[in-house]
Amino acid sequence: MQVIGIIPARFGSTRFPGKPLADIWGMPMILRVVERAEQCTGLSKVIVATDDERIASVVRSAGKNVIMTSPAHPSGTDRCLEALEKSGELADAVINIQGDEPFVKVEQLNQLVEAMQDSNTEIATLAKKIEDPSWLTDPNKVKVVMNDLGEAMYFSRQAIPYVKGVEMDQWLAVQAYYKHLGLYAYKTAVLKRITQLEPSSLERAESLEQLRWLQNGYKIFVGVTLWETPAIDSPEDLMKVLASEKNSF
Predict the structure, then answer these.
(1) For 176-228, how does the pLDDT look when each residue is reduced to its tens digit (9 = 90+)?
(2) pLDDT tens for residues 25-70?
């Protein structure tokens, strides 16, 4: 099976314009993501998909693969499809690697590649067990519940499930909760179909793209990972990373 990694990278972030080019210990963030992705032996190729020539120029100068895509895409999923089609690659599956995850673990990428080997898997993603009770009430920490087959039943910004008769600060003691991580893998045929779907009512309610796929009957396998690496969503996130030990990630 041929699996390629695509890294969507927009310049125009509301919270952090130009963040793919943010310097992290002497290297632009986007190149750190590429560097990690290229360590995954399960990926036959790694491509940056961007809408900005400044990002593309940096990637090209480093000798890495880059494809220019439309600035009108509403999501990284749509950008992945355009990059795949323009690349001419006959990939069986695509891993969507976030451009603001410079410390993504190779083990996590391998986990998604392995999930794609199952002929029954349409879409795969990752989640990590929640250990901090404050995450349950944080709407920026997206929660997921899975069935006994490891398939997502629902994603929410709320804590799910609700534990009746137990104070919320005790929920982690009686129930396992999982935080969704924003890495996705799709079979190529499925990627082409889900990008044609209209936004769904559940997606609009929670502002979570993956609910569109669930609401339309697609299955999402959720692999449990031991790691959560820091995403760079804001200048403050970058400052926290730079204040840490360089080898701590």
Answers:
(1) 999 999 999 999 999 999 999 999 999 999 999 999 999 999 999 999 999 98
(2) 999 999 999 999 999 999 999 999 999 999 999 999 999 999 999 9
Tell me the three state secondary structure of residue 235: helix
Nearest to 67 by CA among 75, 55, 77: 55
- Contact criterion met (CB below 8 Å) for 37 and 59: no
The two tokens of residue 211 are 């609910």
Spatial distance between the Cα atoms of 178 and 224, rounded to a whole number of angstroms: 8
- Contact partners, residue 186, CB within 8 Å, separation at least 6: 77, 80, 93, 94, 96, 122, 123, 124, 194
At 59, the amino acid letter reads: V
Query: In the block, which residue shows the tokens 């999930």?
Result: 115
Query: SS3 of 41, please?
Result: coil
CA distance 10 to 100: 10
